[in-house]
Amino acid sequence: MEKQREQDFLDRLVIFLAKRDGIDKLVKTLQYTGKLSHWHLSRRSKRSSVPNLATRAKALEVSCGLARKAFRLGRWLSGLNNLRAPAPNLPFLALAILANAGEMVYFFFDHFTWLSRIGVLDPSLAPRFSLVSASGEAFGYVFFVIADAILIAQGVREERRLALELQAMIQAKRVAIAAIRVKRVMSAMAIAANVADFVIALADIEPNPFVTHAVTLGISGLVSAWAGWYRNWPSS
């Protein structure tokens, strides 16, 4: 069982890393791990070995950041592909256009930021490209958040509707089960009454000390009467 779980994890990891987004998330994890490590190690710079480790952590952060920008080459075109997906209604279409437009600006100018930082373009242009890229990113995220918030609200309403339907279904099943139980009890009462009346009839058909005994006839008569009473008593 444990080996199966390990194999399942490895299979999922391979599938995850086979995707460009999977590699991007892995490198992003390393990038921000380096950032946090640099911050932590910089605060402990009194030790002789710490400054060197802090520098290495910063190098990890910077290199991963540049690597992620390289991985995202051509990523801005994915926004066009996302717009091809059918929108459920006009408001969602408008949100999708605005959100993906912001994301396309982000990825498009992110390429120029990367080229500037590695020296292909003028490095002094990197802050401007980064500003435009970040502005597009922030703009797109606003509408992505709005769309997801709407989806969450719709999901909550749908969940409540299904919960009410489930409760109604359960209640209906409980009513059906109760009706079956009532029928079963009524059938049992009918059997008891018929058996009691059968004993009373035997007293006239084939008199014998047992069926003609006062106790036998008395109990049989009461069982028949009470069973009939139960069956004919008005239900609440």
UniProtKB/TrEMBL annotation:
InterPro entries: PEX11 (IPR008733). Keywords: Membrane, Peroxisome, Peroxisome biogenesis, Transmembrane, Transmembrane helix. GO terms for cellular component: peroxisomal membrane. GO terms for biological process: peroxisome fission; regulation of peroxisome size. The chain crosses the membrane at residues 90-109, 129-153. One of its GO terms (molecular function) is identical protein binding. It is a multi-pass membrane protein. Pfam families: PEX11. It is found in: Peroxisome membrane. Its main location: membrane. Belongs to the peroxin-11 family. This is Uncharacterized protein. It comes from Selaginella moellendorffii (Spikemoss).
